[in-house]
Structures are given as structure tokens and as C-alpha cells.
Write a sequence for this structure.
């Protein structure tokens, strides 16, 4: 049974979150857990809730997922910035040495020279590359943490509690 899965929400005009991806969390019921271990006579009341220790672990997992999403957004923004810088460098290289070049400063264009602009753009590109490497390492660490947390939650669910020991079989 799959514990986590990515779900695309159907695009609907009344759904403000239709363009986002969500991770749904499926907690097998105690009945399903016992059935897998041979305790098929166990029954569960309809109002049973997720235990607090599991809720805490799920909250930690969700926080880690939010961190990963934030890092991915930062990476996308950085990729866009790198692409813009690359395009600007390409266009600047096509410009003649004595050609007029303007630099964008807020809502104003300032006259500049090609050499200074090239140096500035190359420095920006190097900085963006360095930031991209750092972000990639952070994403790797967060992904590893997510896998560890998912494994821990799965073990806790299978084991029946935070200690990992299975709950006693139901009495007949």
C-alpha cells in the first residue's frame, strides 16, 4: 500500500488551488495493518483518530515538504535569472565595441560601456552558478530527510507506535 502519492488536482474554475500539486497522505487503518499481520479479527470504530505521535511525525514531514517546495521555487527563480543573464551576454557580444549600451537600473536606463556590462554580467553568472550549487546540495539534503521521515512513519505505522513494537493482538 502506498503511503504517499503525488496528486494533480483537477482544473476547475471554482478551485483556486487547481494549478498546484499536493501530496496526499494515506494512513492505513489498524484493520488493514492487522490483516497484513494475520490479526484479521480486529475491528476499528468509525470515529478513531490518528494518534498524536503519528500526527507529530506527519507535521514534521509536511514542514520538510514545504521546505523542499521553497527550495524548488528558489531554484526556478535562479534558473530564470541565469537564462536572462546568458541571453544578455549573447546579445552584448553581438554589439560592436563602440556601440551604445544601456544598463537597466530600476525603471531607468543608464548609458554604459560594453566592457563594464560584460564584466558585470559574467560576475552575476558566476554568483548564480555558485548559488545553484548550494541550492542543489540543500535539495539533496531535504530529499534525504524526507525519505528518512517517510521510512520512520511507515515503521511507526507498521509497529503500532513510536517505540516500533507491534500492538498486542485483539482478544477473541
Amino acid at each position: 500500500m502506498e503511503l504517499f502519492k503525488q496528486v494533480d488536482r483537477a482544473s476547475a474554475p471554482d478551485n483556486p488551488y487547481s494549478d498546484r500539486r499536493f501530496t496526499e497522505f494515506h494512513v492505513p487503518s489498524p484493520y488493514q495493518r492487522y490483516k497484513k499481520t494475520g490479526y484479521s479479527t480486529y475491528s476499528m470504530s468509525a470515529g478513531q483518530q490518528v494518534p498524536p505521535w503519528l500526527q507529530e511525525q506527519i507535521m514534521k514531514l509536511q514542514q520538510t515538504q514545504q521546505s523542499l517546495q521553497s527550495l524548488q521555487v528558489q531554484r526556478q527563480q535562479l534558473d530564470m535569472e541565469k537564462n536572462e543573464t546568458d541571453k544578455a551576454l549573447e546579445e552584448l557580444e553581438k554589439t560592436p565595441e563602440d556601440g551604445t549600451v544601456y544598463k537597466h537600473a530600476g525603471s531607468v536606463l543608464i548609458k554604459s560601456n560594453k566592457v563594464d556590462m560584460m564584466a558585470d554580467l559574467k560576475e552575476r553568472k558566476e554568483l548564480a552558478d555558485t548559488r545553484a550549487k548550494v541550492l542543489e546540495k540543500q535539495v539533496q539534503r531535504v530529499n534525504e530527510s524526507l525519505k528518512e521521515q517517510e521510512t520512520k512513519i511507515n515503521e511507526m505505522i507498521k509497529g503500532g507506535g513510536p517505540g516500533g513494537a507491534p500492538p498486542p493482538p485483539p482478544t477473541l
User: Anything to note?
Assistant: The two ends are 27 Å apart (CA to CA). Confidence is low (pLDDT under 50) at residues 1-12, 17-46.
